[in-house]
Amino acid sequence: MTQNIEQEALATYRRYIAVRERIFRERRSWDELADFFTDDAVFIDPAWGRVEGRDNIRQFMRESMQGLEDWSFPEVWTMVAGHRVVTMWEQRIGAEADGRRNTQPGISILYYAGDGRFCYELDLLNMAHVFEDLRAMKWRPGPGAHTPPEKPDRDWSLPAAWRHLEMRPT
User: Looking at the chain, which terminus has fewer C-beta neighbours within 10 angstroms, N or C?
Assistant: First the structure.
């Protein structure tokens, strides 16, 4: 069973990434990614904090990515263990005058709930590095950009209904 759930989780994650790449390429709304989450999912962003529920995740994705259309997130590697998908990616923001992209490494941990949906995503990113690059390049957000909440919820626990998926060290 573990191998089947891992294959299903990886296939779902690959579809998720394909949609994310299409969104970037075609300048579509990021809220399409919410369709990959359960109704009670939790998404944790390093700047925005904890967002609970698919409808709120949809709104978060729409608002948090508005004005950041030139940012991309190519994958570096991905691995799966049971219901857990762990991936390293690059956050590419803006371009220098010489065309060089500013990049920071990021890690995401997702929990696969079955039926083509995730119940959890935790994104980890060194925000100090991000802000250093943004200041150095004098980056300004595009029209309609939103700012993260002043005091985001930093609770990184799984949704209550899915805590049985948590893999604890033995």
Answer: C
Q: Distance (Å, rounded) from C-alpha 21 to C-alpha 33?
A: 11
3-state secondary structure at position 128: helix
Contact 76, 156 (CB under 8 A): no
Computed over every residue of the chain, the mean pLDDT equals: 88
Q: How many whole angstroms separate alpha carbon 68 and alpha carbon 164?
A: 36
Fold classified for 2-151: Nuclear Transport Factor 2; Chain: A, (3.10.450)
> Residue 128 above 90 pLDDT?
no
Checking DSSP bridges between strand 117-125 and strand 37-45, what pairing results, if any? parallel
Cβ neighbours of residue 102 under 8 Å, at least 6 residues apart?
92, 93, 94, 95, 96, 133, 136, 137
Closest CA to 95 of 134, 66, 125: 134
Q: What stretch of H or E contains 12?
A: helix 2-26
- Residues in CB range of 60: below 8 A, 6 or more apart: 43, 45, 48, 51
Q: For residue 105, report the phi and psi dihedrals to the nearest 5 degrees.
A: -80, 145
Residues 31, 56 contacting (CB under 8 angstroms) = no
Whether this prediction's pTM lies above 0.85 is answered by: yes
Type of residue numbered 2: T
